[in-house]
Specification:
By secondary structure, the chain is α/β, with parallel strands linked by helices. The protein is built from 20 helices and 13 strands. Strand 2 and strand 3 form a beta hairpin.
Length: 482
């Protein structure tokens, strides 16, 4: 057991060292920052047909960085995760169509406002709803953390509607289009851009937005003053020389195909596959890499927990049971947010998203592995231990030579099954900004609004990989029984 423990500690330490070393170091002459964003918010932040991060926000940031002499690493994730990453020092700043409000000023320092927007609301094209009063008793779809969500919440009691929340804009749009909800609220330019790019919604107030407000670049309150000053200085310059207006017009006046690709690229499954093949392949590789690294380390951790669970020591058995209970009972997304956003605030060290994702898999999947490993050892007939002890073997030697080999043989199908579960669970890690297969699909849908086709492709890819793993499981099980 001591050897297993040392192996686990060494592996995790090496992995964490790799994760920290993989972050780009700051140059002595060029300050380097980590900037969080929500890449599902076109026309401000999204991926274009070449899978590059573009938009009004991104062009403004890139232009200012070049002029002011700093570099940055972009971290796309959900809006709420992006703001929390800055608040917990996992990122230095956030630019994501973020409205400046009094409540947010308590947590963040904002730049000079760089865009003035207002709230719009939209319904399905064939909806009979024409006014806010018609929403009484109905449900509206909102994207969490947005100005649109805040405005809808402020008028909910007045107009008597119910609310359901989503983490990205396209899903809330689809919910309205499919008839599950009656309307959605959001920043007017974002809604208009979505409609312009084929989303089948009708904007009800295209010329009369509600609750106009400003967008700002944000840093944690009291931190990164030099970054905020550089942004403000650069923004003043691009506003003065007309660069800012060119950036805004580039996105608001462009044809849909400029960034989303031609109709042939988006109106069929084969077109989407052809035009996004590299993105799908990159997402799949990241998913498989996460799965393989996660399952190897989770297996080592699970084996240790399983051995502890059948040890002679009551303390070790109790510790194993407690660890398994805690991490099996904790939702995986909560664990991921705790490690990536909560933990750095306590230990004072940034944790890369990939490292946080693998640690999440180790703790969660390792707990399940530990449970069936312990069960596998306990399933070995008790007479085996008695026979081994009667031959003069110590308890630990009997475990190593007799019980563990037989138990592991019984557990092989369970190990393969856990591999499949881990593969599927990697999709949850998209919430902390890991660009695996599910997050890849979300970014493509944000750009082309082809939710059904894109998610059908993602589903088939997962199904093919899981089918191959199932065949492997059946083959290994047959071999071990032979």
């Amino acid at each position: 057991m001591k050897k297993v423990l040392m192996t686990l500690v060494t592996a995790v330490a090496a992995f964490l060292a790799f994760g920290v070393a993989s972050q780009k170091p700051a140059s002595a002459s060029e300050p380097h920052y980590i900037i969080a964003t929500d890449a599902t918010y076109a026309p401000f932040d999204f991926q274009d047909k070449n899978n590059k991060y573009v938009g009004i926000d991104q062009d403004i940031l890139a232009t200012i960085a070049k002029r002011e002499g700093f570099t940055y690493e972009l971290k796309p994730m959900s809006f709420n995760a992006a703001t929390q990453a800055v608040a917990s020092d996992q990122a230095d700043g956030v630019i994501a169509g973020m409205s400046i409000t009094d409540a947010r000023r308590q947590v963040f320092d904002f730049s000079t406002p760089y865009y003035r927007s207002g709230i719009g609301w939209a319904t399905a094209k064939d909806s009979k709803i024409k006014s806010l009063s018609d929403l009484k008793g109905k449900t509206v779809a909102l994207k969490t953390g947005t100005a649109g969500a805040q405005y809808a919440e402020s008028i909910q009691s007045k107009y008597g509607f119910k609310i359901t929340y989503f983490s990205d804009s396209d899903t809330s749009y689809r919910d309205v289009i499919n008839g599950n909800t009656a309307a959605t609220f959001g920043d007017l330019p974002v809604l208009q851009y979505a409609v312009k790019n084929g989303t089948e919604l009708k904007v009800q107030n295209p010329k009369d937005p509600f609750n106009a407000g400003d967008y700002g670049f944000a840093v944690k309150k009291g931190a990164n003053a030099s970054l905020l000053a550089a942004f403000n200085k650069g923004f003043a310059a691009i506003k003065k020389d007309g660069t800012y207006d060119k950036i805004v017009n580039k996105y608001l006046d462009a044809k849909a195909s400029t960034f989303t690709g031609s109709a042939s690229d988006n109106n069929s499954v084969f077109g989407i596959l052809r035009s996004n093949s590299s993105a799908f392949w990159t997402g799949l590789k990241e998913t498989l890499y996460l799965t393989i690294v996660g399952i190897i380390l989770a297996t080592i951790w699970g084996l240790l927990l399983g051995v502890m669970g059948v040890a002679k020591s009551k303390f070790l058995r109790g510790l194993s049971t407690t660890i398994i209970y805690i991490f099996r009972g904790m939702p995986m997304m909560v664990l991921a947010f705790f490690i990536y956003i909560g933990l750095p605030g306590v230990i004072g060290v940034k944790i890369p998203a990939f490292t946080a994702g693998v640690l999440t898999l180790i703790l969660n999947e390792g707990a399940y592995t530990g449970a069936f490993v312990r069960g596998g050892f306990n399933s070995v007939d008790g007479g085996q231990m008695e026979a081994a002890r009667s031959l003069g073997l110590s308890h630990s030697k009997a475990m190593r030579k007799v019980i563990i080999p037989q138990g592991l043989k019984l557990m092989i199908p369970s190990f393969i099954n856990q591999f499949i579960i881990t593969l599927k669970d990697t999709s949850i890690l998209s919430a902390i900004g890991i660009l695996e297969l599910t997050q890849t699909g979300t970014l493509i849908v944000t750009r082309n609004s082809q939710g059904f086709r894109v998610w059908a492709i993602i589903a088939v890819i997962y199904l093919i990989v899981i089918t191959l793993l199932t065949w492997l499981s059946n083959w290994v099980e047959k071999r071990t029984r032979a």
